[in-house]
Design brief:
Number of strands of chain A: 5
Oligomer: heterotrimer
Largest sheet of chain A: 2 strands, antiparallel
Number of domains of chain A: 4
Strand content of chain A: under 5%
Number of domains of chain B: 1
Helix content of chain A: 55-70%
Structural class of chain A: mainly alpha
Radius of gyration of chain A: 26 Å
Chains: A mainly alpha, B mainly alpha, C mainly alpha
Order of helices and strands of chain A: HHEEHHHHHHHHHHHHHHHHHHHEHEEHH
């Protein structure tokens, strides 16, 4: 049963081809004056068109196409179904925003030839992954995406740490691809049916399904940033130029989520009852660990990268709930959980891109990502500060913005889960709910800290005091994304309805149509159970705030006098006396991070009379590094040292090795049957 | 429809009118318990009026956010307080926000207040904000777990539905008892009462809320104080409507039921105020770093309650 | 026939004391005992700990008394009285005197800090819920499910008492952990119908003797080593065996 190519599929393929052409153009024009406008402008047009086309493809019928590329007897199978279309939309929307931002931001790039060719290639790779319909094309596109992003991570190779970040990234990416390759191998089975269609027709049975789940969690989870496979993410994402960071954090992690959904929900057959548990647990742990680490960072982009891990955790909790509900036959609840996860995929793509753009704008304006050198930017960068405030509020899950809407849906899904029969779920779901709530509250703390230190208070350095608002393209990109955050928060019903074709395809049931609910409310299950209306909440708050302001200014007084700050009578003119990033996090570090991250403070107080400065040194370690990767690296090192001896053999010994290997193989062959 | 609209409107004005009185009552009882005469229970109204008519003194580098936050804070708290049933459940807009949203609205209010504390760039503002977010990072999940417990019992996160389920009676449930204890702890912490924070303190390093709003004056301070009073009212109303739902006028009830609801609501508020005052006078403020244990206990109790409900669902 | 029986069987009072209410109250007491066990884990002062322990004993005696009323088992009143007299009054007072006379440091010295201990406590409660509900699934059936939850609560109290003994340094708090463990046993025993009085009394006396023995030991230890910190005892023994 071959599918006919639909118009949208052709558009998507044309977009991929156009992006690849733009990559070539970028390589050719990079040093010239037209490189930046051609590449980013072209990418903007292409991705915008592709995004619109993908949006129309979500409810459209599935299209398929086999191109005579790749492995001869398989070809390149391409397919655009509702799920692919959702992710294609997210990819291209993020791509369009990043291209628009890049038009301005790229001006400050001192080595454009290291960015321009790879940027469209990266977009092309990310667009191709959701289209792939066989293992070969999928892995090819996946690797292409990884390599292009790796090239972008190391594009600023002179900056300290970036090369090491690239190394860790490429290692983890290779590991992830290996895991996915093995997963596809298991799915294809002995028959070698490498097309997704063949895999779907013959899903794995018994333990093979469990291994596929584990491999998908390793492969896609390492790309998405699940703990403890997240270690590369906070190194690599901030190392890239800011619009690429936005793409990596906002979009590429979503492509990884797509990979997970495609394998586990679509190809691996009907789930076992326990499949949800590891996914929920991993998600909940990623949520809390990610946001706690974000709170300990003092580099704006690293804060954002760790916060990505938190949001990925939330998405995986939603997916795990959907798996558990699906396995137990609760279709409606599965649809709710799955919708929540997809909704958050969209939301996080918008919010995180926005926040990275803001961090990039701050970097452009002040030349610094270190929070303790910033401050007071709300006065110097009015547009950026408004957009960032919206982004920060959205990612902190504050109503009526979009982050809250998806989080609310996840909570509603959790509240349906006592019906689940299995013991493991009964215990892990409430614990995951508590961890998610903790993560949400900590996220608010994290973004109060980020925004408060960077944009509020007084400037902590000369550069911050003299910052200027960024160019019009960057501002436009940030405002557009902020608008999306607000719109998706006020009209969550529209997004939910738009996602339903994909939900129906994957879990078999859809959520009740939200368009039929009066007043644009959302009602996930039944009105008596729960409902939420972002628009009305917003209108209530706005109108009562305005009314209050009006009444007070009218009836009481609107007089204002400017004066020096009060500060309990002891104002200090030195901006260093403000709370810093480290001191703001101190209470939370003390409460949460002492056991989890072995965070320690060491205070060196010089004796009275000494002129030496007092120092405070804060150390924290990531348990993933300490207990997993460093021992692993040590092991590899030891094995490599052993293997090193093989390089100092005589020719006769080498020949003996080859001979021995040959004989061994022949023996195996002889004994096999 | 019209009746529900009327109930909603009455409620909005009622909470606004009663909030300062409640704070005044708490202060009065506390004063009497410590053998002081204390100010009149109407003193908070006078304070608000006085503050409203004063000019607002702003620090030189205060931004627009600093000026906007009091209005946002007040509006968010007011909307949240208007959605918690006080004397009757027939609130016309109760479906627009469930208990999770109400919790999150308070979270929004706190988010912006913490930002405002950092706006002027003083060390006191920073200390207040940083401690506030530490406290809220535990109080908020505890609150969510309490909401979970209630929602699992009532099969709904809608506060009006929960209240009507509670009126109908669900029996004595251990998880609800745990939720009540946890809610009491969260309420104490959220409102900055002793032993977590001291609402009457100034010029002390232990203060949290007061440190955060130190730079505010005039009408801005009036709004912040009123928002704090509304929040106290909100939590007492919440406890009353969930755990003592007797006397609540059902939706579409006649005038008699409404009057009864008002009377019982007044009694519940007064009881809550007296209890709070007694509790506050009989306990000492704890060190800041003892607070996480206190709130952690609330989180654990909430989680335990939820867990019990999850487990007992097979019954 | 005494009054309790009248309440239990068909008088007008019966309506008030319907089966579900009897059950709910017993259940609530069991839950309260678990809650108080958590409160004990939370305390960081010895005197406060003793007070909370006394509170637990009071709730326990209420719970036992309620069971006596509900099951119409007058001998359980004796148990309740024993709990009230010894555990709520005598033992806390004795321990308080010991603390005062020995000049023990008034803070509860913990091995693991309070937060993680509480977390571990939650995990233990979850564990005992799973174990008890599973183990009794065959016996109880759906109707008796809440009774099984009571058993799970009793096990939780036992485990939390043990947890307290494990995570506290001071010998006095270990004694209290032991006593609260015993409270859990009594809760389990009275919930099950038909526990003989002899067993009750012997349990109560054994606990009392344990207290005396421990008390004597405390004095002796104190005399010899000048501390009741059990870690210090380990050091005297020449490291942990």
């Amino acid at each position: 049963m071959t599918l006919a190519p639909t118009f949208q599929l052709l558009v998507a393929l044309a977009a991929v081809a156009a992006l690849l052409l733009l990559a070539l153009a970028g390589a050719a024009l990079a040093r010239g004056p037209y490189g930046r406008p051609v590449v980013y402008g072209g990418a903007l047009v292409v991705t915008l068109l592709a995004a619109v086309s993908a949006l129309t493809a979500i409810p459209a019928p599935t299209g398929g196409l086999v191109l005579p590329l790749g492995i001869p007897w398989i070809g390149a199978n391409l397919r655009l179904d509702a799920l692919s279309a959702v992710f294609l939309f997210v990819v291209n929307l993020g791509g369009a925003a990043a291209s628009l931002y890049g038009l301005g931001y790229g001006r400050h790039d001192h080595a454009p030839e290291r960015v321009l060719p790879f940027f469209p290639a990266f977009l092309a790779g990310m667009s191709l992954v959701p289209l792939a319909a066989d293992a070969y094309t999928f892995l090819l596109a996946w690797e292409f995406m990884s390599l292009a992003s790796w090239a972008l991570v190391v594009s600023h190779d002179k900056e300290a740490g970036n090369v090491q970040a690239g190394l860790v990234y490429i290692l983890m990416a290779s590991f992830g691809t290996l895991a996915l390759m093995l997963a596809f191998g298991l799915l294809a089975g002995g028959g070698g049916g490498f097309t997704f269609e063949a895999m779907r027709a013959a899903p794995p049975t018994g333990w093979a399904g469990a291994v596929v789940l584990a491999l998908a969690m390793l492969g896609a989870g390492s790309k998405a940033g699940l703990v403890p496979l997240h270690v590369w993410l906070p190194l690599a994402h901030p190392a890239a130029p800011s619009h690429v960071s936005a793409l990596m954090s906002g979009v590429m992690t979503k492509v990884a989520v797509y990979g997970f959904i495609r394998i586990v929900f679509d190809l691996a057959g009907p789930p076992d009852w326990w499949w949800g548990i590891p996914v929920i647990v991993a998600g909940a742990i990623a949520g809390v660990v990610g946001v706690l680490q974000a709170l300990l960072q003092s580099d704006t982009k690293r804060v954002l990268a760790f916060s990505t891990i938190e949001n990925i955790g939330l998405i995986f909790v939603g997916l795990g709930l959907a798996l558990a509900f699906k396995a137990s036959g609760f279709g409606g609840a599965a649809a709710l959980a799955f919708t929540a996860a997809l909704f958050h995929v969209f939301n996080h793509a918008a919010m995180k891109s926005l926040l990275f753009f803001g961090a990039g704008a701050v970097l452009t304006a002040t030349g610094s990502r270190v929070m303790d050198r910033l401050g007071g930017l709300i006065h110097r960068m009015p547009v950026t500060s408004v957009a960032m405030l919206i982004g920060a509020a959205a990612i902190s899950a504050l109503p009526p913005l979009n982050g809250f809407a998806s989080e609310w849906l996840v909570f509603q899904a959790i509240l349906l889960s006592p019906e689940l029969p299995a013991w493991g779920l009964k215990l892990s779901v409430p614990a995951a709910g508590a961890l998610l709530a903790l993560a949400a509250a900590l996220a608010a703390a994290c973004f109060v800290r980020l925004y408060g230190i960077v944009f509020l208070g007084r400037a902590r350095s000369e550069q911050a005091a003299n910052a200027h608002e960024v160019d019009v393209f960057s501002r436009a990109a940030m405002l557009a994304l902020a608008g999306i955050c607000v719109a998706a928060g006020l009209f969550p019903g529209l997004v939910i309805d738009a996602l339903q074709p994909a939900v129906t395809a994957l879990v078999g049931v859809r959520m009740p149509a939200q368009s039929e609910v009066a007043w644009l409310s959302i009602v996930p299950v039944a009105e008596s159970r729960s409902s939420y209306n972002g628009l009305l909440v917003f209108l209530f708050i706005a109108s009562s705030a305005l009314l209050t302001a009006f009444i007070i200014h009218r009836l009481a007084t609107g007089a204002v006098r400017r004066a020096p700050p009060w500060d309990c009578g002891f104002p200090n003119a030195d901006p260093v006396t403000q709370y810093s990033a480290g001191s703001f996090a101190q209470p939370i570090r003390r409460v949460f991070a002492r056991t989890l991250f072995a965070a320690r403070e060491r205070v060196e107080m010089p004796p009275p009379g000494s002129l030496a400065p007092a120092r405070i040194e804060i150390t924290a370690r990531d348990p993933a590094w300490a207990f997993l990767f460093l021992p692993l690296a040590g092991l590899v090192e030891r094995i490599a040292t052993r293997a090193n001896r093989l390089q100092y053999l005589t020719i006769r010994q080498y020949l003996a090795l080859v001979f021995g290997a040959l004989v061994l193989l022949l023996l195996v062959l002889a004994l096999w049957t | 429809m019209m009746a529900n609209l009327l109930v909603q409107g009455t409620q909005m004005l009622l909470v606004l009118a009663l909030a300062p009185l409640l704070t005044g009552l708490v202060r009065k009882v506390k004063a009497r318990l410590t053998r002081r005469r204390g100010a009149s229970v109407l003193q908070p109204y006078r304070d608000l009026a006085r503050l409203l008519n004063k000019e607002a003194v702003l620090a030189h580098n205060a931004s627009w956010l600093f000026r906007a936050v009091p209005y946002l804070l007040f509006a968010a708290t007011w909307v949240a307080a208007a959605l918690v049933p006080t004397f009757g459940t027939g609130l016309i807009f109760s479906w627009s926000a469930d208990l999770i949203v109400i919790t999150a609205l308070l979270g929004s209010a706190r988010f912006f207040l913490a930002l405002a504390g950092m706006d002027v760039g003083t060390s006191f503002g920073g200390i207040g904000s940083s401690r506030e977010v530490m406290i809220s990072s535990l109080a908020e999940p505890a609150m969510i777990m309490i909401v979970f417990s209630l929602a699992l019992v009532a099969h709904s996160t809608q506060l009006s539905t929960i209240a009507s389920v509670m009126v109908a009676g669900v029996g004595l449930r251990v998880s609800l008892a745990l939720a009540l204890v946890a809610l009491a702890i969260v309420a104490v912490a959220e409102n900055g009462r002793i032993p977590v924070d001291n609402p009457a303190t100034h010029l002390e390093l232990t203060m949290v809320h007061e440190a955060m709003v130190l730079e505010y004056s005039g009408r801005h301070l009036a709004l912040i104080e009123l928002a704090a009073q509304l929040k106290l009212l909100l939590f007492i109303s919440l406890v009353a409507c969930v755990f003592l739902p007797w006397g609540l006028a059902p939706a579409g009830a006649g005038a008699g039921a409404v009057v009864l609801g008002m009377a019982s609501y007044g009694a519940k508020l007064a009881a809550g105020a007296v209890l709070l005052a007694v509790f506050e006078t009989s306990i000492a403020k704890m060190r800041v770093f003892r607070v996480p244990d206190f709130l952690g206990a609330a989180l654990m109790l909430g989680l335990l309650g939820t867990l019990l409900l999850f487990v007992s669902r097979i019954l | 026939m005494d009054r309790t029986l009248e309440i239990a069987h068909g008088t007008p009072l019966d309506a008030a004391l319907s089966a579900s209410l009897v059950f709910d109250v017993a259940h609530l007491f069991a839950g309260a005992l678990v809650l108080i066990s958590f409160l004990m884990l939370y305390q960081d002062r010895l005197y406060a700990l003793l007070k909370v322990f006394a509170l637990q004993a009071v709730v326990l005696s209420l719970s036992v008394g309620w069971q006596a009323l509900a099951q119409d088992a007058p001998h359980l009143y004796v148990t309740a009285a024993i709990a009230l007299v010894f555990k709520a009054v005598v033992i806390p007072l004795a321990l308080a005197r010991m603390v005062a006379r020995l000049g023990i440091h008034r803070q509860v010295e913990t091995v693991v800090s309070i937060g993680p201990t509480m977390l571990a406590g939650i995990a233990l409660v979850a564990l005992s819920l799973v174990v008890m509900l599973k183990a009794t699934a065959a016996v109880g059936g759906a109707a008796d499910a809440l009774a099984r939850e009571d058993l799970a609560f009793a096990l939780s109290v036992v485990l939390l008492g043990l947890l307290m003994m494990v995570t506290r340094r001071n010998a006095v708090s270990q004694v209290i952990g032991f006593m609260s463990l015993e409270n859990g046993l009594i809760l389990a025993a009275t919930g099950a119908k038909g526990m003989p009085l002899v067993v009750e009394i012997s349990v109560a006396f054994s606990v009392l003797i344990a207290l005396i023995v421990i008390g004597i030991f405390l004095f002796r230890i104190r005399e010899r080593f000048d501390t009741v910190d059990v870690d210090a005892l380990d050091r005297f023994r020449g490291g942990r065996a």
